[in-house]
Design brief:
PAS-like_dom_sf, Beta-Lactamase, 577 residues, 5-stranded mixed beta sheet, 8-stranded mixed β-barrel, TIM Barrel
Length: 577
């Protein structure tokens, strides 16, 4: 068969033009409006995409300017060669190029990503589309192939994916990665027993206070490097935050378990020498065992936590196994839940508001409502202490509705004319009367929906993503904005942006930790800001505490900020209007 580029070029170009116009957001043009010559001119001069035609056997039949720039070959050098030349030797030997053509032939189109190779041997990460081209009677004429270099995009996604699963200070896996790993071990059912450990460094706060946070961070990095070298394939040690570490060890015998505990103690406890000082550390270790001490990971961690606190209070024995009598904590938990219910009845809860500012820091752009609890015996309690219990016990439902109505009433009374955001729990979103109750609150208070914003985190989508998307769409249709909170801390944050159009992205405060001194952290922040701009979604950076952080965010193109730099949260009457 001879080259088909002459007879089918118009057909090929019309396909390419449609795809290209769709990709760059242009209005589609009927191919009858263009001549074969203009088609040829258009395709041959496209630079953003490598576009070329393949014969039935994969022989390259045409070559455009984008292909030359992407792969380094001139049309004279490459036409007549097989397109498998762009694949690795391993892929060529395994028949990958032929399989891709076969899939395009079977389904009409192949689409995928992978490494492709240039004339000089260098590689790039490519997005590839292969379309089967047929004439009007259905006869296969060849294939249209489009390749685009998306290496930079992949690097951004890889960085964000890494941040979602690893602790930026120590490089150890984080909570998300630990849960995925252990749940995989449990589901695999390959081990009779699993030990779940909680490890805490005694008097770590004193080390920070006396030696400074730099030494504290260096200590965490030192012990983390030790455990990273120690663990085997079926073991994992993760950092949950601060000086809190967790570990998992599958085992069959007590000797295996004892050896692992000994190694853990060796990694964490002992004298650590630094350039300016030496620090002596003792680790308290608690552990529980699956399945005896719990059938799910949350229970096992909770029980190992109890054991760790017992070890912390024992001078002689710094390793403690969970025992059922440690469940005094459960009693306290139940009492706290009862107190939450009573607190709702007795109006013990109230709201503070934190300003959001333009990047210049001069203009107030909105406010975030923050819940506080004045307990009659325990004093002021912050949300991170009681919200998890409120969610577990479903008391978040009445408490959440109270917050929504209180925000509306306080904002109206105090003549707030800027947007006010409220954190919405995943439990609230799944409540069957949530939409009706929100409508009822808006009708009773006459609060303008355009000034209301709901903040949700990635955890809202874990249980029933389809249901939550449906609820959020109804909320948006009411005129309420939706913000994705804590962006970057979850494994699927980027996926959420693909699946739902949020009105705002809130970059998690952890991104700003040590941004002044860590170029890698700054590059991550730059990547997130770039991502938000690429999808035309506004972004606000949380946790801004210093002028230096503010300046860096301004330099990187961030437009809106929030944090203690502009004042602590306060009652609504003290806000700048």
């Amino acid at each position: 068969m001879g080259y088909i580029v002459i007879n089918t070029f118009s057909h090929f170009c019309s396909v390419i033009l449609s795809i290209h116009c769709y990709a760059v957001g242009l209005v589609y043009m009927d191919n009858r409006m263009l001549t074969d010559i203009s088609y040829r001119h258009f395709v041959e001069n496209v630079k953003d995409y490598a576009i070329y035609m393949l014969e039935l056997d994969g022989t390259i039949a045409s070559w455009n300017e984008g292909a030359r720039q992407a792969k380094g070959y001139t049309s004279e050098e490459i036409i007549g060669s097989n397109f498998s030349i762009f694949y690795s030797e391993g892929e060529q030997q395994s028949g990958e190029p032929a399989r891709n053509l076969a899939l395009a032939l079977k389904t009409g189109k192949f689409e995928g990503e992978g490494w492709r190779y240039r004339k000089d041997g260098s590689s790039f990460w490519a997005h590839v589309v292969i379309d089967a081209i047929r004439n009007d009677d259905g006869t296969l004429l060849g294939f249209a192939k489009i390749t685009r270099d998306i290496t930079e995009h992949k690097e951004v996604i890889d960085k964000l994916s890494w941040m979602a699963r690893y602790d930026s200070l120590t490089g150890l896996p984080n909570r998300v990665a630990f849960f995925a790993f252990v749940e995989g071990l449990i589901a695999g059912n390959n081990y009779p027993q699993l030990a779940i450990f909680t490890i805490d460094l005694d008097k770590f706060k004193e080390i920070n206070d006396v030696e400074g946070h730099l030494i504290g961070d260096l200590l965490l990095q030192r012990v983390s490097a030790n455990v990273a070298k120690m663990v085997k394939n079926d073991e994992l040690v993760a950092r949950f935050g601060g000086d809190e570490f967790v570990a998992v060890k599958p085992f069959e015998s007590a000797d295996e378990l004892d050896l692992f505990i000994e190694k853990l103690q060796g990694c964490f406890s002992g004298i650590h020498d630094f350039a300016t000082t030496s620090v002596s550390v003792i680790a308290s270790i608690g552990f529980s065992v699956f399945p005896r001490d719990g059938s799910d990971l949350n229970t096992l961690i909770s029980n190992s936590d109890l054991a760790m606190y017992r070890a912390k209070s024992d001078i002689d024995n710094k390793v403690c196994r969970y025992e059922p009598e440690m469940d005094e904590r459960t009693r306290k938990r139940n009492q706290m839940i009862s107190d939450i219910r009573q607190g709702i009845k007795e109006d013990q809860f109230y709201l503070h508001y934190q300003e959001k500012r333009s990047i210049s820091g001069k203009q107030v752009t909105g406010y975030e409502a923050l819940l506080r609890w004045q307990h009659p015996e325990l004093g002021l309690i912050y949300p991170d202490e009681f919200i998890p219990l409120a969610e577990e016990s479903a008391t978040i439902i009445p408490l959440g509705y109270w917050v929504l109505e209180q925000v509306c009433r306080e904002a109206l009374v105090n003549k707030i004319h800027k947007k006010v955001s409220v954190n919405i729990s995943p439990v609230q979103l799944r409540h069957r009367h949530f939409i009706d109750n929100v409508r009822g609150i808006l009708m009773r208070t006459c609060f303008p929906v355009s000034l209301f914003e709901f903040e949700v985190t990635e955890t809202a989508f874990i249980v029933d993503k389809k249901l939550v998307f449906n609820v959020l769409n109804q909320i948006k249709n009411m005129g309420i904005s939706i913000a994705l909170d804590d962006f970057g801390t979850g494994y699927s944050s980027i996926s959420m942006l693909r699946e739902f159009h949020f009105d705002l992205i809130k970059m998690d405060r952890s991104f700003l930790q040590n941004i002044e001194n860590d170029t890698e952290v700054r590059s991550f922040v730059r990547a997130v800001i770039s991502l938000s701009k690429s999808i035309n979604t506004p972004l606000i950076a949380e946790g801004v505490e210093t002028l230096e952080q503010l300046k860096i965010l301004e330099d990187e193109g961030c437009n809106e900020v929030q944090g203690f730099l502009f004042g602590k949260p306060t009652i609504i009457g003290q806000l700048k209007k």
